Amino acid sequence: MKQFAVIGLGRFGISVARTLSRMGHEVIAIDSDEQKVENIMDEVTTAIQADARDEQTLKSIGIQNADVVIVAIGENVEANILVTLMVKEMGVKTVVAKAINSLHGKVLAKIGADKIVFPERDMGARVAYTLTSGNVIDHIELSPDYSILELVAPKRVVGKTLGEINLRAKHGVNVMAIKRNGEIIAAPGADDVVREGDILVLIGSNRDLKGLQDS
Q1: How many whole angstroms separate alpha carbon 207 and alpha carbon 105?
Q2: Sign of the CA dihedral 93, 98, 102, 104?
Q3: pTM attached to this predicted model
Q4: I need a surface site. Which of 100, 102, 130, 157 has the fewest CB within 10 A?
């Protein structure tokens, strides 16, 4: 279990915080708006009303101990950049920052943001899933209960056929396609062999997909 801190509880920040929490991770949610903090209080580990632009406040919260900090401040670009710079200088290993456009993204990259996301293009839930698994390439939520996941084939399945892996019987997950060297094998059969570097496109319930990743 990792510890995440989400700074800024707009639609994007709330989506990230809720998804990470539902996945079983420790989540600290921070915003200056008391109502936003109260709205998410029961869904995360800790919800704190605070001005994230205050370095001492962030230190007192223990932000420097988080594995990943997501700076999701959207309305105030100056605050977004300042907070990103501060948490990076505090020694946080991975800082993910929300950008509103490509120029903003370039500034964030120059001050050390490890990952930059554009909410118009990257839904919060997708970011949360890709942050928590090194093998997950993409996550598309079809409904609150079902998703499509693109997963780099784990070493344990390389060299085996889909029939031998039998993900449907073992995990309740179906293989929709295999991406290989830029090509797509649609509706692969039981005799198709998984190769190193393959990306498996899976569909299933969120619970089953998480179980597959944890196995």
Answers
A1: 34
A2: negative
A3: 0.67
A4: 102
